Structure formats: structure tokens, C-alpha cells
Amino acid sequence: MRxxxxxxxxxxxxxxxxxxxxxxxxxxxxxxxISWKRALGRKPAAAIYYATTSETxxxxxxxxxxxxxxxxxxxxxxxxxxxxxxxxxxxxxxxxCLQQLRFCELxxxxxxxxxxxxxxxxxxxxxxxxxxxxxxxxxxxxxxITPEKIAAGMSWREFSAQIDTAYCGSTLxxxxxxxxxxxxxxxxxxxxxxxxxxxxxxxxxxILSITPLxxxxxxxxxxxxxxxxxxxxxxxxxxxEQDSDVVMFIYRETSNDQNSGRSNIAEILIEKHRxxxxxxxxxxxxxxxxxxxxxxxxxxxxx
Length: 303
Prior knowledge:
single chain, alpha+beta, Endonuclease I-creI, 3 domains, four-stranded antiparallel beta sheet
């Protein structure tokens, strides 16, 4: 197998957290990097990344890191020397001091490459974190914080003072919140709801582009609870409800159950109606013409 064709075996992704940590620790000893990064006028920091010519392998490592709560940034670096162009290098970078600390504590590296982990951890602890990623979207002000503030009987001026922010009127609502600010908001309003959001394991990021891959066969999936599931590290859900004026579902007992006596009856469930009531309507389903008809005996024409 050539270097750009390398992939991880499927069994790795079925491993538990301890096994993933051990695997990545030894993998980093091959083509990983843990070194010092020094810039003029700044405190010493760390350069932590894994490099490979296999994009698939890079994305798989990125996924495994996320299993540990470590967010890796994928970069593609063109390779060109003199007049020759080589295959690009795909690098999974661990950035900002909080993510790097988590990597050093959970993964590190086997062998000599990991010998400077202790010194790097000391340097990272000396850095005051100021992350500009994982920002909770600004919509949280209207949907979550405002109701909690009203319930607490607090004014916006009082709230701003509580979260150590200068009162700025409606300007406050134009930006998202960092985890730290959301923690302060939860504390100020004594809100378990905001606290759960502040300490959740969801990573918030902005979608910059969507690239169509063509038409594929898909299948419905049912998940109990909030009806969300993870697909390729993304939280996937059906968002049709929030944009629709009317949401209706059709339910009909399986045609194989001939003893039920209702196999030709369809229930039209109106679950959302912005301008009217919700409820249930029963119609007769005419299978030959794929139409619905009224259950009234004197009604002959399909609807």
C-alpha cells in the first residue's frame, strides 16, 4: 500500500476510549509532531500535528481525536520543490492551549517524541486562554437567555453587571457567546438550563460551504429522545418543522394486517398549524388510484 492510500482498519473505530488513547499515542510516534513554537514577543507555545499524504487517514485521525473531545483542524499543504509538484500533505493540527493541554494529558506520544510533554504542559498552563472558536450562536440570547432573565426578574443593565460586561443595549445581542461568558450568564441567572449549554460536549462551528456529491439512496433512522443522531461527527436532525406553516403526517396500518379492518383507512395527523388548530382526520385510501376519499358513505369522488 502506498503512503497516500493508508487508512485505519474498521476495528479501530469500535475501540473504547482507553484503546483509542493508546493507539493515537503510538501513532503520533510515527508521523506526528510535538515541538516548541516560539514567536517574538509571545510566550512559548506548542506545535502539535500529524502529517500524512493520505487525506482519508487524516480525516480518520481527526475523528478519533474528537472521540476524546479534542478538536483537530485539517490543513492541506501543497508540496512543490523546484519545478516538481508532489502529492499534498494533509495535516491534523491541535490548536489553542486548551485543546493542546487535553491532547498532552490524554494522548501525548510514545518514545522520544513525547519526552518534552511535561515542559509543554507547564508552558501551556501559563497561557491565559482566549478562544475565538466554539462560540454559541447569537440566537441563544432571544431563545434561551431572555426567558431566563425575565423569570429571574432582572434588567439587562443588572444582567450585564453580573456577567462583567459593560451595558451596551441591543449591541449585546449581535454576537455569540463563549463558553466562559455562558457560564457567567448561567451563574448570574441561577439557570441550570444555561449551565447545561455552557458545559455541553457540543462543539459549535460555522458551515462555510456545502459541496454536492450527487444523489444517493437514503434511509429513515429513528432515535429515541430528541431524535438526533451523529453522522460523520455532525449532529443530524430534520429541520422541516421549524420552517413550515403546516406539518402533516400520514399514518396507515400495514396492508398485510388484513384482520385489523383499517388497512384502507389513513389518518392525516395535523401536528403543526400556525394559523389554525391541530388534530386528526381519517380518510379512506384508494390504493388502485393512490387517492384519498372521504369516509362518508355518500361520497363517491376522490378528493
